[in-house]
Each structure stands twice: as structure tokens, then as C-alpha cells.
Amino acid sequence: MKRIIYLFIALVIPFVTTIGQTNKKDHAMIEKSLFGKLKDGKEVYIYTLKNKPGATVKIITYGATVVSLTAPDRNGKYADVALGYDNLEGYETGSAYLGAIAGRYANRIAGAKFTLDGKTYQLSANDGKNQLHGGKIGFSKDLWTAKSFESKSGPALELTLVSPDGDQGYPGEVTLHVTYTLTNDNELRIDYKGTTNKPTILNPTNHTYFNLTGVFTNTILNHEVKINADYYTPIDKESIPTGKIDKVENTPLDFLKLTAIGSRINDNFEQLKLAHGYDFNYVLNNYNGKVREAADVYEPTTGRYLQIFTDEPGLQFYTGNFLNGTPLGKNGVAYLFRTGFAMEAEHYPDSPNEPKWPSVVLNPGQTYRQTTIYKFSAK
Ligand code: BGC
């Protein structure tokens, strides 16, 4: 009998899933439940992390994806500010990377190929002849394993993916750990740690779209943005960097001071037209491997304020120019043109083919690391 009881405790209790404290206010909490099943029958779980002030983040093991994230307005009212889907089908069929970890290489690689140590690798192309966000079945379409825990700063979830040698054409077996921590200061902190068994390239990011009004039928055009970057990498008509690094000064790409997204988005500026709005890699100032403030976003009607900190060299600022309403988002809402923006911390696009830019090569024995923080407050 005792054995049966022990067995029950060991096997069943962890699945019942309230790990940490229950619903009491002022207590951090972690919950786990089934989100859905993939076509091959594999189970996808959803974890809810709640911090002491009462913010929550929901993360699924498919794509290590942030499904929802709440933040307070100036009256202390929390609302979901992250675009997402209600069910797994949305994530399986959607092509907008809502909330997901994009990789191995976030952003574009020209011609879906690169050369490393004299060998050229042909990758899976999924954006015309180019690769976008890791190829047809990138990290955003993979099933990760997850382990939740209480950290000193708040509830946390570590997700792990082992990407086999040759995955989407990339060399080396890569193991990537992504740890989300919802700190008691209302930060979503994302720590990445990756290793490989052969020389390869690695450049993951988180692809959450935010709408700080908390109402996803609103556009994000009244949000005010500040990006600490004097330079950006101009693009060609396929959104591939030309290889130049240009000043933002005297262009509608200058966000050195808080400026409404919509104030210049339709300006007659060739780069804006090529990108159909903002969809640019900003060369962040003061790149030295340390975490520093990269960008701020202020939403004037609710007062919600988002600060982005990262140790990465680049930040892709994207204004949801390709959101087209399908698949339907949470609560049946169609996510239309410019109803969400993303701030993706990463290396510059196409860096594998631009030897002068910060390197994205990862060798055996080295550890890839990234820390990016989305911090919420209100003014
Ligand atoms: C890119 C866009 C792309 C989008 C896909 C962004 O990171 O910059 O060009 O269309 O991802 O959802």
C-alpha cells in the first residue's frame, strides 16, 4: 500500500500541476495544463507563470511560445498585451511567428545559404529564395521540453530543444535552453544558452508582438517609440541588407527620441516603402556584450510603458506590416495590418554573409548566451 501511495505521489501529483503557491494574491505561482495535441499525437503543454504583483505570462511548449502576457496600465489594471492564438491549430498554421522563439537564425539569410570554414550550406528556403526565421520547420514549429521552477526574482520556465545535425540544412547538433522568468518587477526576462557539437551559426530571438492598448483591434500607430540606435542596416526589395550601415539622422527611421509610430510611417522614403512600414534592423548603440537599454515604448491612452534591454547588437523593429487577419487570434479577433509591433533582439540579418558584422558562429566548446528583458510599468 505504502508503495502505491509513494508511486502516486511521484507520478501523479506533478501532473496535477499547481506547482508553487495557489491562487492567493501576492504569491508567485506556476500552473501547467494540456494545451493540445500535435498531428502526431504529441502533447503540447501550457504553463502559466504569475508573479507577486499579479502579472501573468502563458507559454506553450510548441515553439517555446509566449501566448499571453499581462501588464498594468496607469490605474494598475492588468491586460493582455501580447498577440496570440486560442489553440494549437493557430500556432501550427500561422506564419507570423506570434510569441515564438525564432531560430536557428532569426531574420533573413540571403539565398538561404552561407559558407563556414570553406563549406557552403544550403538551408531550407521559406521566403522566396531566402530563409526567414530558421526555415520551414524552424525552432518556432518544434516541440520543446519544459521545466518550471521558482527563481529568486520570480517564477521561471526553462525550455530546451535539441536541433539535430542537418536540421533545416544547418550543421551540428545544437542544444538550446531558453529560460523565461516573470520577475516580481514586472519584467519578462529571457535567458538563452546554446551549445553545438560542430561549428555552426546560431542567432535566436523571441518574436512577441505587443499591443500596449490591450485591445487587439486597435492599431499600434499611436504608440511612441524610442530606439537607442544611431544607425540601421538598409535593405533591398527582398528585405535583405545591402551590406551598408546608414545613419538614421534626418530620416523617418530616427527614433532617438520618443516618437509616435504613425507620425512618419507613410513618408515618401524609399526604405519605408520597400519594407511596407517599419521592418528594420537597428544597430544598437554601445554594443559590448553587456545588457543595456535598447528601446522604450509608451502607449499614451493607457500609460503602459515597455522598456527593452538586451546584450545583442541589433534590434529588429517590425510594425506588423504583414498581419492579415488569418488565422484568427485570441477570442476570435482578426489581427489586422499594424495591430502589433515586435522588437526582436538579435544579430543583424544576413550576418553569416557579412563577414565584417558581429559574428554569429558558434563552435564546439563555446556557449552561446543572450539576455533580453521586456520590462513593464506605467506613466
Ligand atoms: C520580419 C518580417 C516578417 C515577420 C514575419 C519579422 O521579424 O522582420 O519581415 O514578415 O517577421 O512574421
Topology (SSEs and partners):
Elements (H helix, E strand, L loop, with lengths): L1 H10 L1 H4 L1 E3 L8 E9 L5 E8 L5 E5 L4 E8 L5 E3 L7 H6 L7 E2 L5 E2 L3 E4 L2 E4 L8 E2 L12 E7 L2 E10 L10 E9 L4 E10 L3 E2 L3 E2 L2 E2 L13 E4 L3 E2 L13 E2 L11 E2 L9 H6 L3 E5 L8 E7 L5 E7 L3 E5 L22 E6 L14 E2 L5 E11 L1
Antiparallel strand pairs: 1-2, 2-3, 3-4, 4-5, 5-6, 7-17, 8-11, 9-10, 12-13, 13-14, 14-15, 15-29, 16-28, 18-27, 19-22, 19-24, 20-21, 20-23, 23-26, 24-25, 25-29, 26-27
The structure holds beta-D-glucopyranose.
How is this structure best described in words?
The protein is built from 4 helices and 29 strands. The strands form 7 sheets. Strands 12-13-14-15-29-25-24-19-22 form a 9-stranded antiparallel beta sheet, with no helix packed on it. Strands 1-2-3-4-5-6 form a 6-stranded antiparallel beta sheet. A 6-stranded antiparallel beta sheet has the order 18-27-26-23-20-21, with no helix packed on it. Helices cover 7% and strands 38% of the residues. The chain has 379 residues and is mainly beta. A hairpin with a 4-residue loop joins strand 4 (56-60) and strand 5 (65-72). The protein has one domain (25-378): Beta-galactosidase, Chain A, domain 5, CATH 2.70.98. The structure holds beta-D-glucopyranose.
Q: Which CATH top level class fits?
A: Mainly Beta
Total helix count? 4
Largest sheet: 9 strands, antiparallel
Amino-to-carboxy terminus distance:
59 Å
CA-based shape:
globular
Number of strands: 29
The hetero compounds bound to this protein are:
beta-D-glucopyranose
Contiguous runs where pLDDT drops below 50 for at least 5 residues: 8-18
* Helical residue percent band: under 10%
Radius of gyration equals 20 Å
Query: Could you report the average pLDDT, rounded to the nearest whole number?
Result: 95
CATH topology: Beta-galactosidase, Chain A, domain 5
Strand order of the largest sheet: 12-13-14-15-29-25-24-19-22
Report strand %.
Answer: 35-45%
Number of structural units classed as domains: 1
CATH architecture, by name, is Distorted Sandwich
Q: Which structural class do the helices and strands define? A: mainly beta
